[in-house]
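[Solved] Which block belongs to which protein?

Original post:
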Amino acid sequence: MSFEENWQNSRWPSLHGVLAATQVLGCVIVRPVAQNCRSQIFSPVFPLRQSTCNRSCSTPLDAVRNTRSPTMTALENVALVTEICEHPMDAVEALEMVGLADRMDHFPAQLSGGEQQRVAIARAIVKRPDVLLCDEPTGALDYETGKAVLAAILRVNEQLGTTTVVITHNAAIAGMADRVVRLADGHVVSMETNATKLGVEQLRW
């Protein structure tokens, strides 16, 4: 059975929220595609929080969550993650990739909501994950800040080759995706490929 047929035949009666969708995707996509994959979830609803799956995990998504330290700078928060994973990116490189080269020495309380989102992305990508699952990355942000976060996610996808899944209620974001899967009442109702993708600057909501 093809990937598309598997999706179309999937039924999750209790799947009604984006967080549930994120967890299900971690189980039905990450594990079958690669038993030894490294996946990373970042949830902007709780800034700088992630769940990870690495080669030592017995389940697709580890329940361990790392929260930011208010007494550590953005750089120190990202660098801390590199101490618990194999072959990490340089923390400075990760922050530069999400556009925070000039904010590395700032503490969480000195960062805007959008900047905290991008630190969360940096903390996720510094582990070099194979898959990045993004739960409502623009949910609590204004338009311009939301676009800055999406631009950071797009750079990760294009420059690192990280498979990136964005789970959101914001339908406008679909314009920048390679593939769009729509859910309704726990069912997959459609799957389509964007023949022409929009740039982040072209998105409107």
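(Second protein starts here: sequence line, then its structure tokens.)
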Amino acid sequence: MKATCFKFYILNIVLSFLFFSLFCNYCQAAQRDNFYFVQIKYAGGNWDPNPFAWQGLFDFVISTTNIHANQERKEITSGSKEIFNYPFLIIAGDSDFNKFSDSEIENLKRYFDGGGVCFIDDASGIKDFGFDRAIKREFSRIFPNSSFNRIKDNHAISYAFYLIPQVVGTKISIPYLEGIEYNNQMAVIYSHNDLLGIWEKDKLGN
């Protein structure tokens, strides 16, 4: 029962991001109308702690919604111009990673300026250490005048589609999500609880 609730919570985020994508300035119509699991690759850390989570999410989306989900995962770098093709990015990890280059930071700034949104998942479940420190270090460069704050329990992301009481995944680090609001929308949503781990499948799809 709990695993199902967590899955619906991630589905809430996906559906909310698809709604926000209608206002994405640079995304083509084809990308706005489809869900792509787009994950950022980075150097010096484990960018892919749940390598089969996208398959579980894909199966769940197509079986419970009318969303057209693409049966593939896009793996791109933060410095790639390809990020501007998609309104929704995922960054995951469980350890420290290398600093982004200045050009990568500028690219991400432009991405958020255009209405892009990002979901971050700390698979380690350890706050103020490793991945968490690296994420806050890099996003302070992207948003020098903003910081991560607790997202209220009654935020639309939680209640827009399903009533979900908790935001814990395979870990229970903090019982809430953090986010950065930018241009009048929640541009970044951050889970410390390995939410994507709920979707993880083995190589046989189990």
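Accepted answer:
You had them paired correctly. Confirming on the second one: The longest helix spans residues 2-21.
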